[in-house]
Design brief:
Thrombin, subunit H; six-stranded antiparallel β-barrel; 12 strands; about 25% helix; globular
């Protein structure tokens, strides 16, 4: 057989395989908007009703300003959460609701359509930094689909973080799995590392794969500036579900 023919055939085979790979990846990217549309109703923003002291101008007599101290109340953003059952059970990071628990503050969850409901803390796992809260509404909720084969998670997989960064409202950021089984001296368990942008307010939100399945609950960042620098970490969903079942039971 002619050597040039073999070379040309090999070249066309390589180009065919490469084109197929690109086609699959383009199709995967094309499906991302649909994936986000499907998963976004399962992620909530968590707010708490807080009271604080503030100074308020009392009068301006003869050009002299006078102030008095008043107590103000308002809802402030705490973080994010993921709906895990049709009954309205929501998983989040405990540090998201820690102050609310200690100070008996009212919790409000905001859904992706802008509607809100009050919620109560059901329980928490301090070691895993996982908490469960429950809405007080009576409608049927859309739980997040969970990835069961987490042991097959690979470095380089596409992931999306969904949460409420800086209290701006539900936001999405895309990245990859940068590492798995990350461990720290001052934290229990192991974590999924990702470069998907995570900022204060994302805590307790969802880290999903390209098929919209929950793989982790975003938990903390390593940063010298206070914002995302590509070192972001999530609690693996299998650990989260162990805590969830223990809390519910």
């Amino acid at each position: 057989m002619n050597k040039n023919f073999i070379k040309n055939l090999s070249l066309w085979l390589i180009l065919g395989i490469f084109s197929g790979f690109l086609f699959l990846n383009f199709n995967q990217d094309d499906n991302l908007p649909q994936t986000l549309e499907t998963t976004s109703p399962s992620v909530v923003n968590i707010w708490s009703l807080k009271k604080w002291k503030a100074w308020q101008e009392r009068s301006n007599l003869l050009g002299i300003k006078r102030y008095k101290q008043v107590i103000k109340t308002g809802f402030v953003p705490n973080g994010s959460g993921v709906i895990i059952s049709e009954e309205g059970n929501i998983i989040t990071s405990f540090h998201v609701v820690d102050d609310s628990f200690k100070n008996n503050q009212k919790l409000i969850v905001e859904f992706n359509d802008g509607s809100t409901e009050e919620a109560l803390i059901i329980g928490f796992d301090l070691d895993a930094d996982v908490a469960v809260i429950k809405t007080l509404g009576e409608k049927s909720y859309l739980p997040m689909q969970i990835r069961n084969n987490l042991e097959n998670l690979k470095v380089g997989e596409t992931v999306i973080a969904i949460g409420n960064p800086q209290g701006l409202g539900q936001s999405f950021s895309i990245g990859i799995v940068s590492a798995i089984n990350r461990q720290f001296k001052n934290k229990n368990g192991s974590f999924i590392q990702t470069d998907a942008s995570i900022n204060p307010g994302n805590s307790g939100g969802a880290l999903i794969d390209s098929k919209g399945r929950l793989i982790g609950i975003t938990n903390f960042i390593e940063s010298t500036s206070g914002g995302s620098q590509g070192l972001n970490f999530a609690i693996p969903v299998d650990i989260v579900m162990e805590s969830y079942k223990a809390i519910i039971n």
